[in-house]
Design goal:
One of its GO terms (biological process) is regulation of DNA-templated transcription. The protein has nine helices and 14 strands. The chain has 233 residues and is of the alpha/beta class. The protein has two domains: 129 residues, Rossmann fold, CATH 3.40.50.2300; 95 residues, Arc Repressor Mutant, subunit A (Orthogonal Bundle), CATH 1.10.10.10.
Length: 233
C-alpha cells in the first residue's frame, strides 16, 4: 500500500501519444496521485523539470525531438529522479540500456493499469523510504508540507528559497549537491552569480535546523564540491 505522503509526490509523464498520456494520467489520478504533469516532447519535459522539479518520472523511449534515454540523462543533471521507462519497444538491448543508465524499472506497452500502479508504488516506496511528511535530522525535523522546521518544540517557518534549497538537498540526501545545482533549484534557468546569495541562505538554514550552526551535523559543506544533507534513519 502506498501512503498518502507518497501519493503527493510530483510525477512527470512524458509520451508523444496523447491518448496514452490521458490514459496513464487517468489511471494515476484514480489511484490518488494528484500531482501529475504531462509532456509530449523532450523539450516540454525539460521545461517542466526546470519549473516544477518532478520527484518521479515515467518516460517513453521514442519522442519526436529525441529519445527517453537522452532526456533521462539531461534530467539527472539536476538531481536523481526515480524513473520508469514506458515504451512499445521490448527489445532486450533497450531494456538493458534504460536500466544500465540508472532507470528504476521498464515496462512494455501494452500494459495493465494495475501493473503500472504496482510498479509506480514499488519505486516510490523504495526511493522515498521516509513515509512521513516529517524528515528527521539531528536535533530537528523538516515538515515540507508546511514549509517549516521543528526544533526544540518550536515551528520555524522556511522562506521560499530556503524551501527550494532544502528540497533539492533532500531529493539527493546523503549525496553531494553542487553549488550550481542548488542555485538552479532556487533561481531557475540562469543560476550564475548567485553563489554569495546561496551561502547566505545556507547560513540561515543552518540557524534553523542545526543545534549548533557553527558546527553543522545535518547540512555539511564539501569544500570545492557543494553541500550534503544528512537525514536520520
Amino acid at each position: 500500500m502506498v501512503s498518502d505522503y507518497l501519493k503527493k509526490k510530483r510525477i512527470l509523464l512524458v509520451d508523444d501519444e496523447k491518448e496514452l498520456r490521458e490514459l496513464v494520467l487517468s489511471i494515476l489520478r484514480e489511484e490518488g496521485y494528484g500531482e501529475v504533469r504531462t509532456a509530449g516532447t523532450a523539450a516540454e519535459a525539460l521545461q517542466i523539470c526546470r519549473e516544477w522539479r518532478p520527484e518521479f518520472a515515467i518516460l517513453d523511449v521514442m519522442l519526436p525531438d529525441g529519445n527517453g534515454f537522452s532526456l533521462f540523462g539531461e534530467m539527472k543533471q539536476t538531481g536523481d529522479i526515480p524513473t520508469l521507462f514506458l515504451t512499445a519497444r521490448g527489445e532486450a538491448e533497450d531494456r538493458l540500456k534504460g536500466l544500465g543508465a540508472g532507470a528504476d524499472d521498464y515496462m512494455v506497452k501494452p500494459f495493465l493499469g494495475r501493473e503500472l500502479i504496482f510498479r509506480v508504488g514499488a519505486i516510490l516506496r523504495r526511493c522515498y523510504r521516509q513515509e512521513s511528511p516529517l524528515v528527521k535530522l539531528k536535533g530537528s525535523s523538516l515538515d515540507f508540507e508546511r514549509a517549516e522546521v521543528l526544533k526544540g518544540g518550536e515551528r520555524i517557518r522556511l522562506t521560499a528559497k530556503e524551501y527550494e534549497i532544502l528540497q533539492a538537498l533532500y531529493r539527493n540526501a546523503g549525496k553531494i549537491v553542487t553549488i550550481d545545482q542548488l542555485c538552479e533549484a532556487a533561481w531557475g534557468d540562469n543560476p550564475f552569480g548567485y553563489e554569495n546569495s546561496l551561502m547566505a541562505h545556507i547560513r540561515r538554514i543552518r540557524e534553523k535546523i542545526e543545534e549548533n550552526p557553527s558546527k553543522p551535523v545535518s547540512l555539511l559543506t564539501l569544500k570545492g564540491l557543494g553541500y550534503k544533507l544528512i537525514v536520520e534513519g
